[in-house]
Design brief:
This protein is an alpha+beta fold. It has helices at 2-7, 14-22, 37-46, 58-70, 88-93, 148-171, and strands at residues 79-83, 97-102, 112-120, 133-136. α4 (58-70) packs across α6 (148-171). The longest helix is centred in the last third of the chain and has 24 residues, at 148-171.
């Protein structure tokens, strides 16, 4: 996964991590000007490179499946993973991806809980992020084949944080 780029001598950047672990919007659809938050969310939803209920990047897919299993969802389509990498939501609002859980799709299709994500290799990011959950990836990268335990731990820890945020939202 990410290590493939390192072995070829590429610079390991935050943008590379975002694309490799979360995916990125389809090319050529970027907006040049600022979009308000809700417009940026809509734009991201409309321009996904994959089915949000079955995301392509390995990390996003494993994270989605882990959360769906923990929520005991019968239909994974009620949980959607959206990449925002390269979008105005990323650039102006600090959100690299988000997850939406449709809590009552049959009776209330508008009943949705959302958790936003920011991924980084910068251990100094601290509290300077805007998303609900910060995902820290070691600067040397994580390969799901070579670093199985660390990769699984990152998926599980991130899923736990997201589930905690979803649980908190349902209480408010």
């Amino acid at each position: 996964m990410v290590r493939e780029f390192l072995s070829r001598g590429a610079n390991y950047t935050g943008a590379l991590v975002e694309r490799e672990m979360l995916g990125e919007l389809r090319k050529g659809i970027e907006k040049e000007q600022y979009q308000p938050y809700n417009e940026a969310l809509d734009f991201v939803r409309e321009n996904q490179p994959f089915d949000p209920s079955d995301p392509d990047p390995r990390f996003a897919n494993d994270l989605h499946a882990t959360i769906a299993d923990a929520l005991r969802l019968k239909d994974y389509k009620h949980l959607e993973f959206y990449t925002a990498v390269g979008s105005n939501l990323d650039q102006f609002h600090g959100v690299d991806a988000f997850i939406e859980w449709h809590t009552d799709p049959e009776n209330n299709p508008k009943a949705v809980q959302r958790v936003t994500l920011d991924i980084t290799i910068n251990p100094q990011k601290g509290e300077s992020y805007k998303a609900d959950v910060l995902i820290y990836v070691p600067s040397e990268g994580l390969d799901p084949k070579e670093d199985r335990e660390e990769f699984a731990e990152l998926v599980n820890n991130t899923a736990e944080e997201i589930l905690e945020k979803l649980s908190h939202q349902s209480k408010t």
